[in-house]
Design brief:
The chain is built from ten helices and four strands. It has 190 residues and is of the alpha/beta class. α3 packs across α9. The protein starts with a helix and ends in a 6-residue tail after the last helix. The structure holds cobalt (II) ion.
Length: 190
Amino acid sequence: MSSSPAALRAEALESLLIEKGLLDPAVVDDVIERYNERIGPMRGAQLVARAWTEPDFKQRLLADGSAAIAEYDFEGGQVDKLVVVENTDTVHNMVVCTLCSCYPWAVLGLPPKWYKDPAYRSRVVREPRAVLSEFGTDVPTDKTIRVWDSSAEVRYMVLPQMPPAWRSADVGTLAERVTRDSMIGVEVLA
Ligand SMILES: [Co+2]
């Protein structure tokens, strides 16, 4: 990724503020981490919560992810084709990029560090269950696990299953509960 003028400007400002003792680098890291884990993936979480509560939207999202999100003004697109795959009682989906680190930026923000890790990229295909259990995620053995390999052309996002106990929550609350990892498929919401 080449640095945009805005990114360069942000970097220059950050360096200057740290140098002047006005900013603690740890605070910056904390903000970035929060962006990565919460704010970035919030777009995806909004889509998931809406899909859970609006059957029509869910259908459209699963049929053609790119078309369904076209009505949103998600910047930093970089998604030629977004494919949303649905977790069900019989299928659990996981996303990887075995070649590099292709990721649906527009809906999930920045990829987590482990997503770019060669070990994750190769092992997820060979032994998805072992990888899942390292994330503390146990998928019942009678469920099929499908691994989706992202590319520059096609980016995948998982539509997780909604825990039954969440059924009475409103769409905003639901969106707050959807985690980034559940949309990559390494976490099952509970
Ligand atoms: Co890639």
